[in-house]
Amino acid sequence: MLQGNLSRAAQDVGTSQPTLSRELARLEQVLGFDLFDRVRGRLRPTARALALLQEVERSFVGLDHIARRAQELRTLSTGRLRLACLPALAHALVPKALVHFSDTVPQGSVSVVPLESPWLEQALAEQRFDLGLGETIDSPAGVVLRPLMRAREVAVLPRGHRLCAKALLEASDFAGERFISLAEGDPYRHAIDALFARAGVERITLLEIASAVAVCALVAQGLGLAIVNPLTATAMAGPDLEVRPLQEEIAFSVSLLLPDVATPHPLRDALVLALEAAAGQLQTVR
């Protein structure tokens, strides 16, 4: 059908014209109808043949897709590893980890999907990702939780603020200051509010926003002070944003979330090692 005559078709598939002619005749016998009309020595496809060709082409496209996918899985060149993580970790920890990963597996392919909690934990419990990164200390059903790093929340200040002169900040330093809060429901928002409540410190809290990255962006614009996780603070630090440690501890932890039901992706361990290397590097820098 594609070549227009038996001679070219036989040459294309590496056989002889008589052999191909016999095979065509046998196919028509099995099907119970003619595929071609013989017109002056040439083959003209019938309407039935044209309809059948569409099904054959769909089948070959499907087989070709299967073959490509099998090749991908064999070579691991584009067998995509799926990582779900909190948005703050996608901005700070994951990029450094992917540098380590690409050095180890140059052809490894990774899909990073930022998800907020509790949707992150739910997606991993449903085995929709190969691994995850979160701040939860409770393991979701069907997921193994492995501690990755532990640090402390830090203060972020706009350039030129009077508190930049201090190397270590206390809760009392924030008294009367404009403060940018994380959104209601964020566990770190609760821990930060509890710290100031215990110290009896009143802040001016006119702004709140869900993302730690966005909090830092607002601080860099001089809209207030804030307390955020050290990974985001380090990634966002620059001429307009300074970072200071806190006297009081607000623990910050990151955990690996490893689904325990589905068969692990062949490259999962390589990405886990890369994440561990990046976490260790960030802790050393601080």
Cα separation of the termini: 69 Å
- Total number of strands: 12
- The number of domains: 3
Mean pLDDT: 89
Instruction: Outline the biggest β-sheet.
Output: 5 strands, mixed
Q: Tell me the strand percentage band.
A: 15-25%
Given helix and strand content, the structural type is alpha/beta
Q: Percent range for helical residues? A: 40-55%
CATH topology name of the largest domain: D-Maltodextrin-Binding Protein, domain 2
Using the alpha-carbon principal axes, give the shape: elongated
Supply the number of helical segments. 10
Features:
alpha/beta; three-stranded antiparallel beta sheet; single chain; 12 strands; D-Maltodextrin-Binding Protein, domain 2; 286 residues; Arc Repressor Mutant, subunit A; five-stranded mixed beta sheet
Describe the secondary structure blueprint for this structure:
Elements: H1 6-13, H2 17-31, E1 36-39, E2 42-45, H3 47-75, E3 81-85, H4 87-91, H5 93-104, E4 110-114, H6 119-125, E5 131-134, E6 143-152, E7 154-158, E8 178-182, H7 187-199, E9 204-209, H8 212-220, E10 226-228, H9 230-236, E11 241-244, E12 251-259, H10 268-285
